[in-house]
Amino acid sequence: MKKTRIGFVGVGCISGIYLQNITHLYKELEIAGVCDLVREKAENASREYGVRVYRDMYELFADPSVDIVLNITRPNDHYEVTKAALEAGKHVYSEKPLATCFEKGVELVKLAKERGLMLGGAPDTFMGAGLQTSRKLIDEGFIGTPTSFHAHMLGRGPESWHPDPEFFYKPGGGPMMDMGPYYVTALVNMLGRADKVAGLTTTPSEKRIFTCKEHFGETTKVETPTTIAGLIHFESGVIGTIQTSFDTTHRAGCALEIFGTEGTLYCPDPNTFGGDVVLHRRGEEPKVIPLCFNYIQNSRAAGLADMAKSIETGKSMRAGCQQTLHVLEIMTSIIRCGDKGEFRDITSPYTRPQPMKWTELEGIIE
Q: Is the distance from CB of 321 to CB of 108 less than 8 angstroms?
């Protein structure tokens, strides 16, 4: 069996789980090599996984054995790296977000189509057992007709644990761009295309003090909203709210709730692959529903494995750029609404990808 070879551009915090899962979980993928601006990071990955270290991303792009470029650089670098890889003739799978502004995302999608290349990206947690089970319950009518939703990601920000947290507080960062992709991707995967949004934003603190060991006591100026509340209207008529914040000390309640005419679905954390799915139908007690799909543990790279299968078979990929672009437009439009106090129409097309198959073998995406 010929495996699809993956070249890593960037070996940051999230790279570890990609390296692990490509090596040990996804049977049709293998690592071609890695590169990073900090060569030591690439060399550490090389020692652990026995893979090649490229001098830079251009040497990686020039390697004919690399089938897909995995872009896991900082968010503000996603556009430049993805564009360069596409121009070099490589398929690209990017960490979220696709870009830090919608217009650059549109440009990347256009370039991929012109070159006949596949472009997709994270998050792929919607392919996990928790959210796939949630989607199945909605699709099969267990909550009746969906009417509304509430989603929230509330926390104190990443400065206590992330080794390099400054970019989270600069343009292109913030809680919506960092964590919003998990929630918005889950929502569109379950509810379909969004067509209108509104938003409000606030920035309670002008500076942040880092408490991570790498930059303990250092400060940075906050240059992006750190609490964002959005309204989303879907073509189906479903309406709801999404709130993301780096300014919250405590929160309670389910992170993602879908309300219907016959019941309520309490979905698992969209930043996970498993988790509890709780169904509360009218006149009944809440029930924890058994998960009926694979990928319960941290299975990142599922979308990458699906892209590899799509390259081989010609089928549409689940975590493709039609999804990452739609999610990007929703998020950036909510933030822009916060600046002007208006509603904005969503222009990007979107069709829900095919659900996962509950019969497939774990590690082989069908």
A: yes
Q: What is the pLDDT of residues 219-229, one digit of tens each?
A: 899 999 999 99
Sign of CA dihedral 334, 335, 340, 344: negative
Three-state DSSP class for residue 39: helix
What distance separates the 2 farthest-apart alpha carbons in the chain? 63
Fold classification of 4-121 (topology level): Rossmann fold (3.40.50)
Contact 111, 248 (CB under 8 A): no
CATH architecture of 126-288: 2-Layer Sandwich (3.30)
- Alpha-carbon span 230 to 245, nearest angstrom: 12
105 with 325: CB under 8 angstroms? yes
Mean pLDDT of 193-216: 93
d(CA 185, CA 125): 9
User: In this model, does residue 360 exceed pLDDT 80?
Assistant: no
Cis bond leading into 165, ω under 30°? no
Q: Could you tell me the sign of the dihedral formed by the alpha carbons of 30, 32, 36, 41, in that order?
A: positive
What residues form DSSP beta bridges with 256?
151, 267
Would you say how long the chain is, in residues?
Answer: 366
Whether the CB-CB separation of 95 and 102 falls below 8 Å is answered with no
CB of 136 closer than 8 Å to CB of 354: no
Question: Taking the domains of the chain in order of start, what are their residue ranges?
Answer: 4-121, 126-288
Q: Cα(315)–Cα(309) distance, rounded to whole angstroms?
A: 8
**Which residues sit opposite 219 in a β-bridge?**
209
- What Rg, from alpha-carbon coordinates, does the chain have? 20
